[in-house]
Amino acid sequence: MVLAMTASAPQSEISPLDRPVASLFGVGPERAAQLGRLEIFTITDLLLHRPRRYEDRRHFRPVAELEMDKPAITRGKIVALGVKWFAQHTKSIFEIIIDDGTARLHCRWWNLPFMEKYFARGQEVVVFGKLAGLRPRTIDHPETEVVEGGEESSIHLNRITPVYPLTEGLPQRWLRALIWRTLPAAEPHIGEPWPGLERHAARDPRYGITPDMPLPSRARAIRLLHFPESEADGELARQRLALDEFIELQRQIQLRRRNFQAKARALPCAGDNHLIKPFLAGLGFKLTEAQTRVLRDLRKDMSGPHPMRRLLQGDVGSGKTVVAACCALMALESGYDAALMAPTEILAEQHFANFKRWLDPLGVAVELQTGSRRPTAEIRNPKSEVRSPEGEGQRAKGGEKTEDTLRGPHRASLTIGTHALLTAGFELPKLGLVIIDEQHRFGVAQREQLVRKGHYPHLLVMTATPIPRTLGLTVYGELDVSMLEERPPGRGRLRTFVRKADKLPKVWAFIREQLGRGRQAYVVYPRVEDSGASAVKAVTREFESVRQALAPYRVGLLHGRLKLKDKDEVMTGFRAGGLQALVATSLIEMGLDVPNATVMLIDNAEQFGLAQLHQLRGRIGRGAHDSYCILLAGARSKDAQERLKVLAETGDGFRIAEADLEARGPGELLGQAQSGVGKFRFGDLSRDWELLRQARELAAKVVD
Ligand code: ADP
Ligand code: MG
């Protein structure tokens, strides 16, 4: 916890801030249990209990001036109340009517008859909500608070008042008063965890905070969090407390990295080009400048003193696979094994086919290990067998290390697999490099697990999901980052259209025309892979109707529940052109590379996140022909269609990811990767990038 004792506090005593809430006056066992349900156990927890919103109770709106559908705060005296029962006493409405001298307001609650006991005629109540009707003026299910006289009113009224998350039986007023009473005694004990912070940090100018407003001290931030003195104070306090959280997170990340570098020695894996040279010569295209630049980064890492920890970000279709192949060859040239982990079996199979085609001529063994497939090595390629004398002569020249590996029984190989690579049975004797494709599908924990298989092998993770800066600093904080921002040349244009479902017949006609020209198409339905048998049924049903719509063209079906053999058959058919269209779930989102496929229809596109749609459409636009992505949106939601338009407007994965982050929060974008990120009480990854950037710098100072 970042709340620190002041230097003057005696060391032996526990900080008053760590005392249990039950030690506070007025908190008995029942209240303590209720607070516990809110995860408030200590005084620190209580002080960090974040209001969910504020009410400006310095200004109430007269009842007569309330407007429809606009949230507002008002107050008045209860002039009548009661419960009405109906539907044979199974349903009820509890209602209070308040009057503030300008008009009357009806407040109604459905099926909460017990509410009656909390109110009495003549009481003064504060009401927050929005008008649902004008005759009579009515608010349904408002938030209310009974006003009591006396000094208490200075806590609850005439100020910007915090409204807290509660739990059953815990009154808003009681909690607010408790925090009010606890603050004065606690404040002197709230130290500065990172000295000098107020001077360092500039504020994010959004949210009405000007850069010349100094950040409050931590103690002051905590007071302002609960009892702001002006409109901006709550947000200012939040930012200060968020900064503390981010610094702590960044400090941990940077410490971990330091420790790692201190104890892990890198395996010498820079290679000597004897495999890469013929590989590039036989490739059939020239590497782009971006690819060459990234390879220079990689070679530097692979020959450096610390094991490589690098993230390769490159938009869909930017050519990461070839870069991965070169990286693997560096390790193999140096006599070390390499492993490549892909998120799905299909993708692992595709990589396997590619790498075999590329590496077989070089005499490099490539093996496949997925959930459904045993390692090919066990079947026909026992490790002890030394094949391919070609290249060995060259290798022998490559220095002591390589000679060692050649004399011994070990022959370096590349293993490609899915998460099955993580299972206990998988061991590579001399694992020098781990490559993880489509990183966002794997959690940080899994990444670590695989890397621990060897003796600190080098690690290259690749992702096509552009991670907005904020997230990158947290999820990938320990990794160096390389970017492939250039696409290979000679690609056709990729255009994206948003269409309503009623345009479907026209869309089919368009697709048929494209198929008539020899192109191929994907038709994608938004069913997640793990959504079970009913999803399979749904996509199977769609398959039938697509078949009819596209007849006589041949259509294949691909979903996660198919047996691997069947998946293979469909994929092979589609690659070879025997199938002209593929109906699929979002399974195809990752990695598939069929350059002749130029049309993608995504049904119910609004059910996907933007970043995911961008991934999906990355399956087309990979060949020389122009490509077309059609997003079919259900007609219901205008918002959804607006949201989808971003995709029609830009192909920039980063812009799309940021739009997605704003609309849907970080969970979606990160998938499992997020499990490695701390939960923040105050920090908000979707907008605090400026704070995160500062935190990173400040943490570096702390670590030094
Ligand atoms: P991604 O970055 O999405 O994984 P891939 O590695 O699948 O992209 O590459 C997409 C396609 O581009 C592949 O067919 C690949 O062979 C091709 N490609 C990669 N690099 C180049 C290049 N420098 N010039 C031409 N085509 C390339
Ligand atoms: Mg890929």
Describe the structure.
The model is unreliable at 1-11, 376-408 and 672-676 (pLDDT under 50). The strands form 4 sheets. This protein has a 7-stranded mixed sheet, with no helix packed on it. It starts with 28 loop residues before the first helix and ends with a helix. The longest helix is centred in the middle third of the chain and has 31 residues, at 233-263. Helix 9 runs parallel beside helix 10 (320-333) and helix 16 runs parallel beside helix 24. The protein has 704 residues and is α/β, with parallel strands linked by helices. The site of adenosine-5'-diphosphate has 19 residues, from helix 10.
Cα shape: globular
As a percent range, the share of helical residues equals: 25-40%
Averaging pLDDT over every residue, what do you get?
82
Summed up, the helix count is 24
Computed over alpha carbons, the radius of gyration is 31 Å
**How are the strands ordered across the major sheet?**
6-7-4-3-2-5-8
Q: Tell me the major beta sheet.
A: 7 strands, mixed
Query: Number of DSSP strands?
Result: 22
Unreliable runs, pLDDT <50, ≥5 residues?
A: 1-11, 376-408, 672-676
Helix/strand-derived category reads: alpha/beta
